[in-house]
Amino acid sequence: MTWAAVCRIGQEEIKKRFAQSLFHHFNMLRWNTILFLLLMMVHPSQADVNLKEVSASDILSAVAEYKGEKAVLVNYWATWCGPCVEEFPMIVHLAEQFADDAIILFVSTDWLDAKQRVIEFLQKQGVTGLSLIKNQNDNEFIDSISREWSGALPFTIVYDKNTGNVVDFWEGKQPEKRFFYAIEKAISEGNQR
Amino acid sequence: MKNSLLWILLLMLTAVVSAGELEIGSDIPMADMKMPDVSGKTVSLNDARGENGLLVIFSCNTCPWVDKWEDRYITISQKFQIEGVGTIAINSNENTRKRGDSLDDMMKRANKAKYDFYYTMDEESKLASAFGATRTPHIYLFNNEGKLVYRGAIDDNAKKAEKVKNPYLIDAFEAMISGKEIKTTSTKALGCGIKFASN
Q: How far apart are CA B7 and CA A193, in angstroms?
């Protein structure tokens, strides 16, 4: 066999191996893509929402942790509550607007077997990170959060930045102004001290 | 200045809204006010009252919590009826009359769920305001003298009647009928806010 023939066979072998390699990579890429898409379908970026079960005392502890740092607004809502769903995007917008001075905690009061529905709703609203869902008997939960809360939803309560005391609360859907002034009050009163 | 005025107005509104619920021991408010009933008649709380008392349920057609608790409405009303306690459900959702809470919608609901008690329309949410009722379902139980003896939730499990641990209303009713002291006279539960005309 001549050197030229050896080289030709060598080149053909290289081309063949290159083609095999390309096919292999394409195959891997294809399966990775399919796997990724399947995961997306089954589990649509749930890592973005961390839905934690909480009791009233867990919530009050979380609120206390922000004392001296940020005002806290806690919104109690449910996916089945029309007025809650209506005001939700506005509250999300306020959370972004006041991010430096106030924290907004959403507490779902849906039944625990509706967690998936809650997560999907939060994702749709662009809420990421920690979110909360009630895991306690209504009667104890409501009174522990506020003696003034009758249980009607939505319910919103605002805590002062500096003292952690309740600045304002209300039942039912309210306009953005109501939320805005309550947060402003919770921040400014905190700053005065 | 404008903001301060608005703030004061909001605080005043909160004070009005949370003016408080009917106190235990109170008389039946607006007991003679006639309301349109799903039967086509007009009915007052006094008409619905039995010789041994009255159960008032603030309810509606458009609340998931009512959907869950509704399976207990009829069994409770029948149990109460035997002991001479009348039952009336009241729809005070003035702001959603065109969205599922009209008298016509109420008739359909009563027919479908086979209500065997009055289901009346509280025009302009007058009764809800007089009771200080805020949500649906919201329960008020009056004794044979027309005094409030229990207010709040039906029980502690809207979703599953068979998993109820504390049947608050039944406990209060049984104590009332047997002349015993009612241990828990006031409870709370999550529910849909009543859609008052001003909402």
A: 21
